[in-house]
Amino acid sequence: MKRTHSFLFAVLIVGFALTGSQANAELVLEVSPEGPLQSLAAARDEIRQRQPKEPVRVVFKAGNYFITEPLVFTPEDSGTAAAPVTYEAARRSRPVISGGKRITGFKREGDGTWTANVDPDWQFEQLQVNGKRAERAREPDEFFFYLRNGRETMGTTDGPKPRKIARQTLYADPADLASLEKVPEAEREGVQALFFHKWDNTRKFLDGFDVKTGKLFTSGRQMKHWNPLTRNTAYILENYRAALDSPGEWYLAPEGKLHYVPRPGETLEKAEVFAPVAEQLLLLKGDPAEGKFVEHLTFRGLSFQHTDWRTPPQGFEPSQAASPI
After folding, report:
1. Least confident of 157-166, 172-181, 212-221
2. How far apart are CA 17 and CA 53, in angstroms?
3. Please, are residues 282 and 71 in contact by the beta-carbon 8 Å criterion?
4. Cβ neighbours of residue 126 under 8 Å, at least 6 residues apart?
5. Cα torsion 106, 111, 113, 117: sign
């Protein structure tokens, strides 16, 4: 009788041990710049191929993992409550999922600035140098200028399908516009003004300017009567070579020449400069109408960096909570 009880007890222990080990089993995949899996996309595709039933951990070693377009996760990439999928950084590492490209080939100019040539078709509005966001060339270098007043008239656009358009004449202190006198014709269409009014901000390409009379000309949507560009509206001017005069500022010329004013302590030999090529990094694409969701996915400890946002040709009109973005 004792032998029977001992046998049953042993079976129960073994059965519990097997069940426990199965419950704790997981699939671990390693991603590294030199390994078989070298990207987030490769790890996602590996999981799709294996279709594991156990929990999955994808561990990223330190390094930069570059993507040029958003990586799409669909319902087939989901985990389950019992078997979630986790993409995470290895212990004591900081892997970067980068939507950018490194810029090299800088040289030091006589005025102390650095320059490098990039493809003229590669236009961007963000730049990171040594892990810090650089400031696009602007005036003033700190704080703001302030408008003296603003006027608006309504009209129509030219062409076979005319549409209504508002044209603004913004009055400024002529001294605040002095740097615009140095802007060559080739750079003028890229100059932008960023206005801060009440809870809104408005970004516009300048249609023109008159430094002597202190006028800026813009156009687009009709201003809201409760929040127009008017007296004491704060603004800055940016994206022209003549405004490049402070450490940490940069300017990309239309022909593809990148200018940068180094910060104290930065050297050409150790500089890591990245500019974006992608506007988005991840897309979770489900089908709610069909009850299909992307779920039980976790991204932990990964740094998502180097994305861009380009100002539309018509500028960025004010909107509550930047809803168009």
Report:
1. 157-166
2. 19
3. yes
4. 133, 275, 276, 306, 307, 308, 309
5. negative
- CATH fold of 142-237: Elongation Factor Tu (Ef-tu); domain 3 (2.40.30)
| pTM, 2 dp | 0.84
Q: What distance in Å separates the CA atoms of residue 211 and residue 206, rounded to the nearest whole number?
A: 13
53 Rama class: left (phi>0) / alpha (psi -120 to 50) / beta: alpha
- Residue whose pair of structure tokens reads 């062409």 in the numeric block: 159
For residue 6, is pLDDT > 70? no
Phi, psi of 42, deg, nearest 5: -65, -40
Burial zone of 271 (CB within 10 Å; 0-12 exposed, 13-18 middle, 19+ buried):
middle
The confidence score (pLDDT) of residue 10 equals 38
- What average pLDDT does range 139-151 have in this prediction? 97
Q: For residue 312, what are the contacts with CB-CB under 8 A and spacing of at least 6?
A: none
3-state secondary structure 163-215: CEEEEEEEECCHHHHHHHHHCCHHHHCCCEEEEEECCEEEEEECCEEECCCCE
Longest CA pairwise span in the chain (Å): 109
